[in-house]
Amino acid sequence: MRAVITVVGKDTVGIIAEVSQILKTHKINILDITQSILDDLFVMVMLTDISSTTLQLPALTEAMNTLGEQLGLKIHVMHEDVFNSMHRV
Amino acid sequence: MLNSYDIMETIKMIEEEHLDIRTITMGISLRDCCGEDIGRVADKIYEKITRTAANLVRVGEELEAEYGIPIIHKRVSVTPIALLADACTSADVTVLARALDRAAEAVGINFIGGYSALVHKGMTRGDKNLIDSIAEALSETKCVCSSVNVATTRAGINMDAVARMGEIVKDAAYRTRESDSIACAKLVVFANATEDNPFMAGAFHGVGEGESVINVGVSGPGVVQKAIRRAGDCDLAQLAETVKRTAFKITRMGQLAAREASRRLGVPFGIVDLSLAPTPAVGDSVAHILEEMGLESVGAHGTTAALALLNDAVKKGGVMAAAHVGGLSGAFIPVSEDAGMIDAVRNGALSLEKLEAMTAVCSVGLDMIAIPGDTSAEVISGIIADEISIGVVNNKTTAVRVIPAYGKSVGDEVEYGGLLGSAPVMPVNTNSPLKFISRKGRIPAPIHSQKN
Question: In this complex, how many residue pairs, one in chain A and one in chain B, have their CB atoms less than 8 Å apart?
Answer without folding.
Answer: 70
